[in-house]
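Message: A physicist's question: would you kindly supply an amino acid chain plus C-alpha cells?
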Amino acid sequence: MTSRGIYITANDKVLDHAIACLNSIRAYDPSIPVMLIPYNDDYHQVAEVLGRDYGVEVYPDLDFIQRLSENLHAIFGEGFFARPNQFRKQACWFGPFDRFLYIDTDVVVFSAIAKVLDYLDSYDFISYDYQHRGGIRNVFAPAIVEQGVFTAAELEDMFNCGFWGSKKGLVSEQDLYDTFAECAAHPDYFDFSEKTSDQPIINYLILKRMARRFNLVRQPGGGPGNWAGSPHFVQQGMTLNDPNVNKPLDYLHWAGYRIQPGCPYWDIWAHYRYLRDPGSRPVEVPTVAPSPMQALSRKAGTLLSRLGR
C-alpha cells in the first residue's frame, strides 16, 4: 500500500506557528502521518511538543539532512543564501512517504488537506497557489526570459514553495546537486532581492525536470486563493471563502507576513493556535500598524485579488 504523509520544517523559534498548523491539520484529519524536518539544531522543544500532542515524528535520517544541506550550500558558496536552511525541505524526496505534501508552518488548513495527494494519480508534482499571477518577481530575474530558458507557458507553472506535493524518488540526490550547479553558474537568472532562498532554485528544478505537474488552482471552475495578503476572502466562522470562484479555501498561507495582532486574518490564526487550550490565549494586545513590507503586500494583494488570487 502506498504511504502518504505531510512534511513540515520547524525549529523551537516557530513553535507557536507549528502548533497552529498542527491543530488545523488534526482538526480535519486526526490520523495523517506528519513528519518534522528540523530547520536547524534547535528543534528539541518543538519535536517534543508535536510528538506528544500530535503524533509527529522526526525525520529518521538527520545525518542525511545535514550532508545534503552542507553539500547544497557548498555549491553556491557560504553566505550566498539569506536562509540556506530552507533547502532542508528537499529531504522530502528521500523520506519514508511514497506520496508527500510539504507545508510551511505559517499555514493553517481548512480541510483534510492530504486529499490533494489524489492528484498524484495523474501527475508527478502538484502546487496550489497563484504565485504565477504576480509575474516572475521573487523567483526569476528578467534574464531567464531574455535568454529563453523557459517558455511563457512554462513560467505559468511557477509556484510558492510553502505548499507542494510529489512522490518519493522522483528527484535523486545527484539531480539536486546538478541543478544547484546549473543555477550557481547562472545567478543572474534568479531574483533573491527579498531574501528568498529556496523558491527560485526549486522552481528551476521542477520546471526543468518535472513535466507532469499541475497547479490545483487550475481545477475545473478554478481553485480558491490561499494567500493571507488577499483581502477579498469572505470569512465564515473560522474558515474563508473565495468569492472569485465561490469555493472555500483549503488553506491559508501568511507568506511575507509576521503573524501577530494586526496582520491579515489574525483571528483565524489565533483560533487555531489556541484551539486545544483556549483558556491560555493571552489578552489581545492593541492592533499594530502593518510594517512597510506588510503594507506593500496588502497593496499587491488588492491588485492580485482582482486577478483571482
In short: The chain has a mean pLDDT of 88. The longest helix spans residues 62-76. The two ends are 36 Å apart (CA to CA).
